[in-house]
Design brief:
123 residues; 4-stranded mixed β-sheet; alpha/beta; single chain
Length: 123
């Protein structure tokens, strides 16, 4: 049986600011729905990803700035250029024996690492 990660909650202080940030980076805004007072559900999906993030009001009790997420990209340098072009502060490409990495933070300090590796054992 396959287990596929579908949705990762990302704690933020300002939902609209975070939504605009992730859209600027290239995420698709799939849903933005106020379920009821105290619960706003905003689902955003990175380009090419089967897994999304969710931000909003009443989504998680985690402290903003504490979430860490890693995504896989085809080219770390190209991903860095895309981030810089979107006005996002991104690290230099860090070369490791197991892949190349680029790091950035969202406006609340949640951290992202983008990993580019030549081949993946599971595809």
């Amino acid at each position: 049986m396959d287990w596929k990660i579908e949705l990762i909650p990302v704690p933020v202080t300002d939902v609209d600011r975070a939504k605009a940030f992730y859209q600027r980076v290239g995420f698709n805004a799939d849903h933005d729905h106020r379920v009821h007072e105290g619960l706003r559900f905003v689902q955003l999906t990175p380009p090419g990803s089967a897994c999304s993030i969710v931000i909003g009001d009443g989504i998680t009790e985690k402290t903003p700035g504490t979430q860490e997420i890693q995504a896989v990209v085809a080219d770390a340098a190209a991903a860095r250029r895309q981030l810089l072009d979107a006005g996002v502060d991104a690290s230099e490409v860090e070369v490791q024996p197991w892949g190349n990495f680029v790091y950035f933070r969202d406006p609340d300090g949640n951290t992202w690492s983008l990993q580019a590796i030549e081949s993946r054992p599971n595809g």
